[in-house]
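Hi, here's the filled form for the chain we discussed.

Project: internal
Contact: R.S.
Residues: 203
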Amino acid sequence: MNRFVSIFMVISFALLILACTGSDEKTEQVSNDSFEFRKTRWGMTMEEVKSSEDISPSKEKDNNIVYKEQFNSIPSTLGYIFVDGKLVKAAYLFNERYQNPDDYIVTNERIKGLLINDYGPPTLDEVKWIDEDKTDSTDDLGKSVCEGEVSYKSEWIVENTLIELVLDGVSSRCRQGVIFQSKEHYNLEQNKVKSLQPDVKVE
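And the returned structure, exactly as it came back:
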């Protein structure tokens, strides 16, 4: 992954963190023909999204709505993200804190298993080290995640929705959650990333 794409991914996840600052065995977030995430569809207005929820927002701004929720028994912050007044992205950011950093990896694998049950094998499933020389290291793996040395990412594509299970870290603090977004919006973001990359001419 080149430097421009890496920076864009960090910024995207950070924006979700700022926006966001049922305990059964299926996630059922991308539900049926009527809805694309919970009880919403991409492109809905903020008022339509608020009407779809049975709980009141904990925070609301011009481009996002935030709720306190749970994702399979994990205390979470649920955020809806809007662009030009239309819903394009949503995320559950897990608020659970663990004394043992390895427990973040355990949670990641558990949630990944549930998502596989719902949507099948991921189209992308990677563990990425900043320092590729450490890829065989398993000592203090959870600590390495929280320190930002390694990240986990799994992706699923379900009709019009891209689902990302993410675990990474910054400033010795692990961050994890599940991001849902419109495929159309994702493709637009990727095109913006490509437009930021300099043209490299091969002599």
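Let me know if anything looks off before we file it.
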